């Protein structure tokens, strides 16, 4: 039971959320973001989540969407997004 799951426990639509989370996010690639390990200085790296617009913190878990741009979002943010949509929030590619 991690922090991500606990977020859903306080919501009335737990069962729906859990179901969609499983089908929407479980199959997606995840990784841990480390700013110091990212390729540097080419300027176009996306270092912030495009859903909540917050910069990634060191060690945060991000989900890599299987779209051509391989966009990345907070695990929690993309899970919430996929409750309403099955497209990439950035490029609208079907996931
Ligand atoms: Zn986010
Ligand atoms: Zn995308």
UniProtKB/TrEMBL annotation:
Residue stretches making up the RING-type domain: 49-92
A single GO molecular function term of this UniProt record: zinc ion binding
Alphabetized Pfam families for the sequence: zf-RING_2
Domain of life per record: Eukaryota
Keywords: Metal-binding, Zinc, Zinc-finger
Name used for this protein in its record: RING-type domain-containing protein
Species: Zea mays
